[in-house]
Input
Amino acid sequence: MSSKEVDLLVKIQDALYDVPGVVPGARTLSHFGEHSLGWMGLSAAGAIVDKPRQRKWIALGAGAFTAHAASVVLKRIVRRKRPSDPRIKIGVGTPSKLSFPSSHATSTTAAMVSLADITGSKVPYIGIPIMMTSRMILGVHYPTDTLAGAVLGAACARAAIEIERKTA
Output
């Protein structure tokens, strides 16, 4: 691992880890995003409540699930280990020891890109850097893990959105 990337992760934690409410908030996001289950729940709720845009809500869930699955496959190919420098605080447990890409950043980005498309608002995009940063605050991902996850998630969302539009 690049020492510059480890140093950046340490700086992020030094700046934010001890701020009141930050770690509990990051842990809440971690649980919500685990295996993209929170985004699947949002998708289901949207599909039930918003019948005129039901297909778009289903596409949100499909995109988030596909993004998560793609990230898991990539983790098994790349096999990058999670941060382990003694200066890094680990604030949450993880289902695997593999780090690249961040599945949370991947599925969150997919969900937020789709949500922005559904609502016609750019506000959902704020959720992307929040989830990315939360993964680094918790010490379970390097910055490039979250960045790669966001890129992969955006691509999966765009594909899901296009498929929904072309099959409507």
